[in-house]
Amino acid sequence: MKRMALGWFVNFMPPAWRTPWAGTDVADWADGRFYVEVARALERARLDFVVLEDSSVVPQNHGGSARTEFMVTTKAPKNDPLPLAGAIAAATTHLGIVTTMSTSLYPPAHLARLQASLDVLSRGRAGWNVVTSFEEQAAQNVGLDTLWEHDQRYDRADEFVDLTQRLWRSTRDGTPVEHAGRFFTATGRFDAPRPPQGSPVLCQAGGSPRGLDFAARHAEVVVAVPQGVEAMARYRRDLRERRERAGLDPDACRVLFMVTPVVGETDAEARARHERMWAPTDWNLLRKLVFASNTAEIDFARFDLDEPVPADATTNGAQSLLEQLKVRTRGSSLRAAFAQDGLAESLPLVGTPETVADRMQEAMDVVGGDGFLFFHGGGGLLSRRYLTDVLDGIVPELQRRGLAQREYAPGTFRDKLATA
Description:
With 420 residues, the chain is of the alpha/beta class. It has helices spanning 33-44, 67-72, 81-91, 108-121, 136-141, 150-173, 209-218, 229-245, 267-277, 282-296, 319-329, 334-338, 353-367, 384-400, 413-417; strands spanning 5-11, 49-53, 96-102, 126-131, 177-180, 185-188, 201-204, 221-224, 254-259, 262-263, 350-351, 371-374. The strands form three sheets. It has an eight-stranded parallel barrel with strand order 1-2-3-4-7-8-9-12, surrounded by five helices.
């Protein structure tokens, strides 16, 4: 079996602040030093890359107020990931650095220039996590009245990515860019440095059918959250078939599944920690309600917690999450669904490092997948203790089995990914 590609998904937000292991980082998280330390730890463990998530609103979807968001910090407060990416680039040598930028909120030339600059600053380690955004407040923050409907956002994103690729190519050959498309125009020479990689590595998280088409056409790394090994295998097979129909090499795109491992010195200890983490407390229920409301752009506070999600519920936000909750609550209830594991993980991983590595290896044997993206649930949860559990427990066990790299290959971020 080939080695896994491994990354970590983080939010530039306050780290753990309600646990005994919170430390003092909540007081000065905004200066970025905690996340620079995280990046150094990821590089020490020889992970492939870090993804810096972004959104630009204080959500008010749950109950029509920002109050609960500030109580649980799933999406706010948050700093911009691009300056943090520069700091991480200066503090590391090999780690890929993927920044989230929206095709709905940035002009194409501005985004292309920023990404080219990050690729230069990092000496060829930049990646772009392509998102289309779905928050109406985000649109209003940049002078728009509203965002486009779901599929049209992807139509625009297709043209946006094609145009940015032309802009990056122009830095290599000096050709002026003349573009008059359906959504965007560009004229003249592009004033930007030449990216060492030619273009940043493109990352995307397509969940809906239209999102999967977009990911299949453009992405080199796909972040996925299907639930369970069978669903993971179907997702990867579907994406590869879409790439083949588009005339693209399916092996040139890596699918990484989101996971939140819970580790202990014994399996029993890990199970006890896992039960505490997802216990159906008032706090955990509120956090999941707020997270779901903000991600799906639906106020889940208006639904009966002891009933399933209404079958006719629709959204212009994250459709995959809404559909996941409809499936989870079929014949059950929202309350029962939220008492399960996290909404943002594909595979429960609970046990000793050996047990967790076994489960990861078995899953990849079935899925034929490419690796995993570690995630600890968004703002207010990540701690140095959790990093240690994964980086000094699970990753060395994967390395001993030849499933994770012990040393970095030479070259750019894209070159290194090619070895996975």
